[in-house]
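Dig into what follows:
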Amino acid sequence: MKFTNLRWPMTVSAIAIMSAVSVPAFAEEAAAQADAPATEAASDASTGGGIVVTATRRSERAINVPIAVSSLSGEKLDVLNSSGQDIRFLASRVPSLQIESSFGRTFPRFYIRGLGNTDFSADAAQPVSVVYDNVALESPMLKAFPVFDLENVEVLKGPQGTLFGRNTPAGVVKLTSKRPTEDLNGHISASWGSFNTANIEAAIGAPITDHLRFRVAGLLQRRDNWVKNDYTQTINSKNFEGYRDFAGRFMLEYENGPLDLLLNVHGRSLRGTARLFRGNAIQKGTNDLVPGYDIGHTAQNGDNPQSLDSWGINLQGSYAFGGVGTLYSITAWERADVFSRGDIDGSYPGAVPFQVQTGGDTSPKEFSQEVRFASEKFGDVSFQAGAYYFNQNLDNGSGSWNNANVYAPTSVMHLDNETYAFFGSGEYTPTSSLILRAGVRWSHDRRHSILVDGADINARGPGIGVSTGHVAGSNWSWDGSATYKISSSSSVYGRVASGYLGAALKNDTQSGVATVARPQTTTSYEIGFKSEQPGLFNFSIDAYFSNTHNIQLTAVGGGSNVTQLMNARKAIGYGVETELTATPIEHLQLTLGGSYNFTQLRDKNLFVAPCGSNCTVLDPLVSVNGTRLASIDGNRLPQAPRWIGNATLSYAVPLTETTEVFAYTDWAYRSKVNFFLYQAVEFTGKASVEGGLRVGYRDKARGYEVAAFARNITNQVRIVGAIDFNNLTAMLNEPRIFGGEISFHF
């Protein structure tokens, strides 16, 4: 390892140490700020003013929680989620988190500590769970719901199945909306920027009666088509990359004594273009764009419209039995209808040796029911126990278009996905300094799929060549941890946990039988240290090792652009994660975060089809039954950067007691990544550094703020995804955006 690779983590550690040893120097200031939040995460007086998280399904001080958890809220969350961003803005903003998409705003794929799934199929199982307002979402189309009017975002790393509804072998991204309150409050913000990028968010909440209150929130994001199509003979779109995305949420809460009921109704409507595939964009033999490439132009004869309509409703209830505990219930229904079409070859006739335009309709429908009881503390013991049911029905119709814009249906796939689970956990505190926890989960999963070749999802035609598959299985997963409180403001912990991902299916029309991937199991070992001094600093660091057996992989692309489901014998991962928030002087706040994640596939009999041609494969090549394959034993997992780093710095200069000018900058770094399971020079994404800046004026008494901002301020262009046909097709990151914003809070 080169010394230059150590500079960043050494810098973080040095700052943390300096913060710790400088406590006496800052003691007077810390005392003055003791009642203020330690960071932008939630805090309250009942927890001593420290960071509060809900990682254990209870509100607890972060230093008492034996989990590596990151939290975003307040100004940091608002700034990052500006200028028309979708949920992918979270990538690299916390340690060990990566998010990417080959469908644009409708199909994000999440990776925690390198574990994820690059499969672009609608029925693909994902090891990272997204829990939005306590509802676990399975379909990536539902996981794409916009981020607005949130209380916070928490990212939990490692297996979490004994506390959350779905199996979560890699971790959880947990988003929590602001709830109705007993006072009238709300906000409205509007921004405008480059390419006519607009971002308008508004929310208002108020009591209706002594026991009834509401909150309604909405978000509108739009951008002009800013990429010009230079292919003059096209009969399709002349411009690409624009969108209009609207989402809304209505919450109604009834509270009367021990009973609390919360109704959440939400929906989304997206119209725009799908991900733009840029054919012939990568220079052969490098991972650079071809010399002189203009990101504002493309040339292709195909079209790529995209639409998404989704809605959901959930009812969450709790009833407190005095002195005993609280019973919780969450009933949820989610649905989406998605259409997406793409010019997969990314170019026009004569520029590539083939023409491919594909797409189709996808309709996921999900129902879930969770019942959970959380006890009060009986002496030194408390516990939680619950049951969970999940059912998903998924229809996915695919087809292709010719150059005359005529559609031909290819197939219709239907998936039934069902889960039953029981889970429980207990806590024992033999002394005031030691917290022991253990949990267990039993899951039963069933998946049944059928694919009809040549059918139309709309016409429900008879089709030909039926492929069916059915898998079912059960699993016990568990975790155990110990937290030792060194003092009231610092602790160490150790945790061992297992995670589970049920067997997966992939239909095959040629054989008539679906390919099956065996269940995936992960065992994770973790130790960590946490320390906080409210108003001064918060620091955490952890190290982990994970061993995943029968890891489910999807070989994406190759010369024939297929998705092949398979198991590898195992994959290992280990790394270190650290975060620091410091307020060294009044009005100045610094945050630093970073991670090192090593991942490696271990299976000497694991081979995949590499790119068709025009790329430089780095793995050993072999011939199996006349087919050219690459050995991927020893490779890192795809979309798994070794290094992630992020930093923010905010400073305010008071003008009067209630007014100030401020500046806020944020930066995120990730090291290079592989796009596919095999390694190729052209399909290795370069390291990326993206930054933002926000400066403005704030009047706290009148509740308004005016600011100017920039995202991707250095205008860095990076290849973030690819299609490995024969024409070196690339997908690029978001462009630089300049703009202004005004907001009001009341």
